[in-house]
Design goal:
Elements: H1 2-34, H2 45-101, H3 105-128, E1 130-131, E2 134-135, E3 146-149, E4 158-161, H4 171-176, H5 184-234, H6 238-272
Antiparallel strand pairs: 1-2, 3-4
Helix pairs in contact: 1-6, 2-3, 2-5
Length: 278
């Protein structure tokens, strides 16, 4: 009977070792799969919460990054439209010179038609340049065209995109402008005033583009830095963990074999004592 008790105790110890080893093996496999040595507070309380804080900050910067990306896309539409308007106004300036330097009435009429056509194109571009249902070529000095957060720690810190009346071409005045009256200087002066507005609009969109891309690049660097810090805190040493997996897998297999042998021995002892019949 004494031998039976010793065998039972051995079986229990082997089974307990096997269960612990399985848990360690599962933990190593999870670390390798996740790429993290710290997956829960029990792994390392301090490192776990440091990583959580970094991860939370990174999520905030990714939200900012998305807003900046949308603003960049919107501004690119504005740049393209502003460039078209600027080009058409340059054409109108040239047409004024051509008209007033021409003596042939038919040629003058052709220049006048071209002049009016370009004025209509400008009106159409301004009316139809929209992004996310926002009209991009308009006076938004009272309320920014868009306002994006640039600091996830302080939502009061924003980057505003707006234009004022000095940046927006008065397409209505161009539509009613007569290339042939009252005189060349007056017509050119009117077109030049609108050309200056178009130039101001383009200058602002270019400045916004530089600012937005600078912000985008800064966020990229910040996210990369945070990722590096998080990896340094929670990253797993795959070589070490693979070594542990191999050791624990071997121990697991060995303990299963020992458990099988111990159960067989226990059964044989019971049979010898006449307590178990095959």
């Amino acid at each position: 009977m004494l031998s039976g008790i010793n065998v039972t105790s051995t079986i229990m110890r082997i089974a307990s070792f096997n269960q612990q080893n399985k848990a360690f093996l599962a933990d190593s496999l999870m670390k390798i799969a996740s790429g993290k040595a710290v997956n829960k507070p029990e792994d390392s309380t301090g490192d776990f919460f440091k990583a959580q804080n970094i991860n939370t900050e990174s999520r905030g910067y990714r939200v900012v990054q998305q807003q900046v990306g949308e603003a960049i896309a919107m501004n690119e539409v504005a740049v393209e439209a502003g460039s078209q308007v600027f080009g058409l106004l340059n054409d109108m300036m040239q047409l004024v010179d051509l008209y007033w330097d021409e003596s042939d009435p038919d040629a003058q009429q052709a220049y006048k038609s071209d002049f009016s056509s370009r004025a209509s194109q400008i009106t159409s571009i301004i009316a139809n340049t929209r992004y996310d249902d926002k009209q991009l070529i308009s006076d938004t000095s009272g309320d920014p065209l868009t306002s994006i957060y640039i600091n996830p720690h302080n939502q009061a810190q924003t980057y505003d995109i707006s234009f004022d009346n000095g940046d927006v071409v008065d397409s209505a005045s161009l539509e009613t402008l007569d290339i042939g009256a009252p005189d060349k200087a007056t017509v050119k002066s009117t077109v030049q005033a609108e050309l200056d507005k178009a130039a101001s609009y383009l200058a602002k969109t270019s400045a916004y583009s530089r600012g937005l891309w600078a912000q985008h690049n800064m966020i990229e660097k910040k996210l990369a830095t945070n990722a590096g810090h998080e990896q340094a805190i929670t990253g797993v040493n795959e070589a070490n963990e693979l070594t542990q997996v191999i050791k624990r897998q071997v121990a697991h297999d060995a303990s299963l074999a020992m458990l099988a042998q111990a159960n067989l021995m226990h059964r044989n002892v019971l049979m010898l004592c006449g307590l178990n019949r095959a």
